[in-house]
Amino acid sequence: MNSITESIIHDEGDFLLIDKPLDWTSFDVVAKVRNTFKNCGLKRKVGHCGTLDPKATGLLILATGRKTKEISGLEVLDKVYDGVIKLGVMTDSHDVETPEYGHCTTDHLTESQIRSLAAGFVGKHLQQPPMYSAAWHEGKRLYEHARKGKVIKERKAKEIVIYRFEVIRIELPMVYFILHVSKGAYIRVIAHEFGSLLGVGGYLAALRRVSIGPYSLCDAKTVSETLETIRQQVSTTPTGEGS
Length: 243
Hints:
Pseudouridine synthase, 2 domains
């Protein structure tokens, strides 16, 4: 699925399946690929098909050349994640980006409580984007407002669907899960709501995207592998054919 053919260095382009590293933004990956083309003497459009948070890892799909026109078709696909919720504590960003606060005990929680609550999340929900997100408000990203200490209460909620929320292991305060969700779902918000409904608070301690529609992380390459393959493809293409 992620074998890079000659099409990637030509105008028609291709889709690239990349395993995004921790602490990279989606645009960091796009910039690396775009600059690799530039350094090889090629000017190519590059875009990503759905943002992945810096504190998340896993499948990121990039489109190159004319394939960038098909990005909207991939952005609407369902996504599957595996991750960890830490209970008994919260953060402002609902993940590890900001400090913990509000620590409390989780000793009273039972496995049946936790699994039953997860099963109850399946279905349609109205979800408000978190303050620490790339959603826009009055010309600025929400995280820009958040980092200045400003809370935008009128954040527009969107309907999402949770198709599967399976707890695969419980080692309190950690809850390991698999989530299958529709486009636009913020897993951090689900983690925060999950902890709140248990009465102890919680945040997303780790997240990895394992699939987007039919595209799987198993077929993805690292950033360095992708860049090296592009360089090799360019170097083995007769002069002028990739321009």
